[in-house]
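ASSEMBLY PREDICTION REQUEST
Request ID: AP-0331
Submitted by: J.K., bench scientist
Number of chains: three
Total residues: 878
Priority: normal
Notes: Please return the full assembly, not individual chains.
Input sequences:
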Amino acid sequence: MSCTVIAFGELHGIFAWLHELPVSIGLPDSVQAVVMYAALGVTVFSVLSLFALFLVWWERKIAAHIQQRFGPMRVGWHGWYQTVMDALKLLQKEDIRIETRDKVVFFWAPVVCFVAAFLAYVVMPFGKGLIVADLNIGILYIMAVTTFTVIALLMAGWGSNNKYALLGGMRSAAQVVSYEIPMVVSLLTIIIYVGSLSMVDIVESQSGWFFNWFIFRVPFGPIAFVTYIIAAIAEANRTPFDIPEAEQELVAGYNIEYSGMKFAMFFLAEFVNMFTVSAIAATVFLGGWNGPFLPSWVWFMGKTLTVVLLLMLVRWTYPRLRVDQLMEFAWKFLVPVTFANLILAGVLKYLGYWE
Amino acid sequence: MTKEELKDKVLNLSQGMLTYSDSGVFDLMFEVKPENLTKAAVLLRDHEELRFDFMNNITGVDTGEHFEVVYSLASLSNKTRLDFKVVLPYEGAKLESLCEVWKAANWHEREIWELYGIDFTGHPNLTRFLLPDDWDQGHPMRKDWDAPDFVRMPEL
Amino acid sequence: MAELRTEEFQVNMGPHHPSTHGVCRLVLTMDGEKVVAVEPVIGYLHRAIEKICENRTYPQCSPMMDRFEYVTAMSSDYVYALAVEKLAQLEVPERAEYLRVIMLELNRIASHLIFWGVTAMDIGAYTPFLYGLREREDIIDLFEMTCGQRLTYNYIRIGGVSRDIPKEFEPKCRAFIKKLRGKFSDYEGLLNENPIWLARTKGIGVLTPETAISYGASGPVLRASGIDYDLRRDDPYSIYDKFDFAIPTQKTGDCYDRFIQRLDEMKESLKIIEQALDGLPEGEIKAKVKPKFKPPEGEVYSRIESARGEMGAYVRSDGTTKPVRVKLRGSSYNHLALVPEICTDVLIADLVAIFATLDIIMPEVDR
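STATUS: Completed
Returned structure:
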């Protein structure tokens, strides 16, 4: 990973240091890779966990201000460490386990959900050189591991032995499987253009000013972006597509029987998922870390948080779709549109539009 | 239509099924014999000059001497209103159900069955309703009903 | 292809469920997402108000009425007071009647604002709930200023009202009317044209006029089904015949119409309040009612148009200080009986929408 121009405030040094850490402290060759990835993993995990806590607070503040309230105000300045306290409270809570649960499935569901949410960050380019592993199948890998979440939700729905939870689990399975298709197809248009699945390649091909971002640069970019965002909202189980946990219908959906830290794991995983889909949108459509003057990770975070803000505004403005309307929308509208867009991209590629 | 006109009309059309009762203070009050109930109800609902298509309310009353069931009706098209009542003895209080005439009667009758113990023949679903499912202390709206822990308000 | 074996299952929606508006239990028989049959189970909020009233004097009963329907407690106060006044043929001072109308209409708006927010929340839009409560807060402040209470007012008493309005009431009330008029564009802009909202409410839970009448549906639910019937005009009580207001109606009787109906009604209520404030006369606010108040023998059924529909009180007197029977008729009672009729073969999400737009509140059902 060579960086020619190093802007002030770049953090890639930390990652480089972590990469070389096992060698520098003289560990044997056999464990070097393990220790290196463990160190990187712990770093990314802790930063992201803090970020998820921040997102919870931020969402509450945004919701509050949309609704002309203040939101959390008591714990720190404008309640900034409210969610930390909430997490601490949830940690101390009794872990209620109902008698009729499926013991194994009930226990592992939050774990799978939590792990699946974080797996995507292995290939996420947070900034120039800030990537754990630049896999050559990067985006395919992300698509594969984020779908694990649905298995966790099904497990939670089944393991709880509760009809609301089961309905929630079934809904989320149907929804995520349906919206996976438009989501992947929207991303495919860009992959056709770039010719690589690697996240770093995708970002680097958008270097330069904002008109090099794929949302502006290619004719199918805006459509792909919009369809991706719609599918992403559904993937992240957020209003107007939050039917798996639709409070007014299923009380809490799949996590109805969970309490304490297990519930917190679902909750945090949801916010991490939201961050994931936004980060993918920022990376693939909005130029990732590319941007002038500021350090690359600031650009990446800024773009991601802008998308997150968009998702939050949508959530607190729109009503919820019904389950059949949701499916209809996916299969009768979103899938045809994304495929038409994909064909457009393919034709343009064949005609050599951008060579 | 004034009240007097309506009263005359009802008395004429019903051919003795409905008799006038002066206990109603504000609206017209009629009295019906239990055996004529359904016939009178259908007449009140279907006759084109009466058209009492709207069932406001059914009230069970325990006067201390007998039961009364008071039906309050309204006509949406003629904008008129009347009540009629059925007097029932304590022993074996039984009435025909009016669920078929006005569907609104269903829940009201179920409630009276539960709270007063008046039986409604032909009612589709006379089951526990306002009271707990395992209630076994009789019919609480009767005047002679006293719960073990019931304390009466002192007389003023 | 072999037929898949399917099985219906039962879900207990309630007694504690976010969208049952109180403690109502709906036993749903479901086929996957589809609701095949609904069986409402009520009585979780039964406080035996009617039985308690039989052991109290007439004036003592009136605080119980606030608990009968606490979302529009003014209406339930009034319907009982009206019944007893009819029994005793009491003359109520004119100023008291004006104050009653102002309070009743303000309370109707407060109730519709809650309806507006809660319906939106039940269909998944959280924000309107807070907007609705924000404006309701102003009304509650007006009530608090007048009678010191924010929910159970006990303001409308037999023979009049409990106390006069303070000096600041009128300017504050007028300011509120002006403010609320300005907010309607917000309300309409938020949901009325939203495609998701239309998809969720248009054509859902259609209540035909025949079914509505047969089940005794009243108020906004009846008018949303296209029947032009409002007790304030068609069976005028108090001084409603002095005011000039329209009765809005809708056509199809689906969830969307019931939703729009209440928005329209709020505007008409504002007109009534304005006229009542303009014509508010000076004078007494309460007829003389002795504590040992004894209305003559007789029975009466009084009915008014509350925010949810027809609210009635049957009061029977035997000439003593205590009523023989007080029966309260809440419109939610009849509307809840409608739910099994119009909620077959709908999705669970539609059931929630129908339940919300019928505007059922449980204290009125269970009493």
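REVIEWER COMMENTS: Residues 1-7 of chain A have pLDDT under 50 and may be disordered.
SIGN-OFF: pending second reviewer
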